[in-house]
Amino acid sequence: MTHLANPEGILWLELDGAVNIRDVGGIPTTDGTTTARNRLLRADNLQDLSAADLGLLVDTIGLDTVVDLRTAHEIDAEGPAPLRAYSRVRHVHHSLLPDGGDDALLARNRADGDAGPDGEPDRVVAHYLGYVAHRPDSIVGALRAITDAPGAALVHCAAGKDRTGVVTAFALEIAGVDREAIAADYAATAHRIEAIIGRLRRSETYREDIDRKTIDEHRPRAESMERFLREVDARHGGVRPYLHTHGFAQAEVDRLRAKLRD
């Protein structure tokens, strides 16, 4: 139930009911500033938050906007989260998966030419490119909700790794964080992967999917995020041109950049 920076500079929130929740403040930008604290949080599923967790998030940090990237099926299956009881916390839903889920996404979005260390196409990058190709409305909607939040915004999915990782990476790119630091923030989830997988295995919603892979296959790697962002550059001209194409205006980019920086 504390706001704790570890030696790597990661601002973990040590909560009772979530294991992969952190503040993306304090990350250096390319022009010598840092991202601001208590503006954007990233998290895993929020179903198990305790009363003390809620007090820290809402009363201490000033959380007022939750951006849920899960599918409607996940939300229905898991039921309402405790934060729903707070009328002053706005909840918005922007699923990054198309109908048919992950398998349909991968089948439609092979990362041709973007090989992993073993020379094979990177399935993680393929998934992330699928979000970009098929759910620009949700990516823009999520970033707009972060931009419009009067206080702190929190973006989450189930593990706080893939869908949350993509939206957070786009936000950090707009904030002026360099690619290496963006990838490091993404890969920080690896520190908590055993706890994340253990938690998801306790849910009937996620157990079967989680057990299809080993712990190591679930572990995020910085190089996957780096390759993904290079592919966004190659296919869409970069994060900003992609967002402009899909209706996230320059004025919104400027507002989000200002919000996320000290």
Automatic annotation (TrEMBL):
<dbReference type="InterPro" id="IPR029021">
    <property type="entry name" value="Prot-tyrosine_phosphatase-like"/>
</dbReference>
<dbReference type="Pfam" id="PF13350">
    <property type="entry name" value="Y_phosphatase3"/>
</dbReference>
<dbReference type="InterPro" id="IPR026893">
    <property type="entry name" value="Tyr/Ser_Pase_IphP-type"/>
</dbReference>
<dbReference type="InterPro" id="IPR000387">
    <property type="entry name" value="Tyr_Pase_dom"/>
</dbReference>
<protein>
    <submittedName>
        <fullName>Protein tyrosine/serine phosphatase</fullName>
    </submittedName>
</protein>
<feature type="domain" description="Tyrosine specific protein phosphatases">
    <location>
        <begin position="137"/>
        <end position="172"/>
    </location>
</feature>
<dbReference type="InterPro" id="IPR016130">
    <property type="entry name" value="Tyr_Pase_AS"/>
</dbReference>
<comment type="similarity">
    <text>Belongs to the protein-tyrosine phosphatase family.</text>
</comment>
<dbReference type="GO" id="GO:0004721">
    <property type="term" value="F:phosphoprotein phosphatase activity"/>
</dbReference>
